[in-house]
Amino acid sequence: MTTRSTEPFLWLAFSAGGVLAALLIPSLLFLFGVAFPLGWLHPPEHARMLTVLGYPLTRLIVFLLCTLSLFHWAHRFRYTLYDGLQIKHLNELINPFCYGGAIVGSLVAGYLVLQLP
Amino acid sequence: MADTITMQVARYRPEQEDELTYQEYEVPCPPEWVVLDGLNYIKDELDGSLSYRSSCRMGICGSCGMTVNGELKLTCATFLTDYGSGPVRVEPMNNFPVVRDLVVEMGDFMEKLTRVKPWIIRKEEKPLSNGEYRQTPEELEQYKPYSMCINCMLCYAACPVYGLDPDFVGPAAIALAQRYNLDGRDEGAWERRNILSAHDGIWGCTFVGECTEVCPKNVDPAGAIQRYKLTAAMDSLKSLLMPWGER
Amino acid sequence: MNDGAGYTEYHPRWLRPKMSTYWWLKRRRYLKFILRELSCIFVAWFVIFFLLLVRAVGRGDLAYQRFLEWSGNPLVLTVNIISLLFVIFHAITWFNLAPKAIALRIRGRGVPPFWIAAPNFLAWAFVSAFVVWLMIGR
Q: What ipTM does this complex have?
């Protein structure tokens, strides 16, 4: 497949990732990134985390959130490098870095989700 | 309120200089005068060598687009009094080669407009005996905003993607394609697909949205492009998952 | 530059100013656009942070507690606070732009943009409330 015909699918992944990221990340980042470390709220017990992450639906959503968010980053970052830093001529380096990075991250996410007890 | 205002006008005379320079003129500013009136006064009374485009002086021909104090405007629709005591800096539109003074080269824009096949395409023409094509007001609403474009090129001047890559087909061309794609009488969406989905087509757009901000006719090219991205992406998905569909 | 018809072509030297690398600083709307685009970096950071959390949970209570402690580290905390601001900025700009891509018509009339954006924001509120309840609800 040439880059030309993959663009629609990359854009769909970017859009889906954008939606999931917008819906889920603010609350999760607020809790685990700010509220729990600062002591504003009590973090859940380990057992509860295991229970929540035990549901297949949760694991699927976690996997999709990570994968699609990474593709969202890849697509947007690629165009930011093109337009912001004007290095579009380096696209043969930029594209593998962005989308390759997203693929690697997705594999890692898949592995981690599957190896949960 | 002062009687006159200073206009700092960009000059570029290729036969004598390599760069843009600025020349200042004192121009009267009655409350009803627009920037174009100022330019006309300069040309008539002060400096006949100034070159610029204008025609209808009422915001419908799209000739007089320029950069005024850093903002893209139709100079026939921008009052001098909006700038208080001045100065008013007038420069040619961004992102286009400057031919002379305030005149920009528009060949690229014209080529792109025609490239998207801006006419009704039908697989089969209906015979004349069938009578006219009929369209409800609701069907007209689907594409009417996109038909309001006056080809003023302000959206191309505003678009950073076009500024960085002049191959980009650009907002007005895509909005024009949508004007026909969404017209019930047209059956040419497929033909336009290949042109718009090419590497210099819609996918280069990163939805900056500046084109819609500067458009004097509320065409909303940014909206046209985003809608088309969704349409084209769904079409690609369908043809991937169900390749047996008829074209 | 002569052609056979007997008149010369005069082609003036066009001026092509190069676009500055800092074009995005020239207008406030351009700056807002670039910040919106850069928010994707913080989205990617969150994925890394979250996967570290998932990995810690999978390794047991001790690893989980150590993760929670590490997330209190001043550098990590600062990064996360900045990330949270950018991610919220992403969500707000994303839902506000949703109506541009989705042109809905109900009974032959166009749906005003507000009614496309509003359900998105509502969904955001519900999902967030659900996530919070899931994590710390009784």
A: 0.92
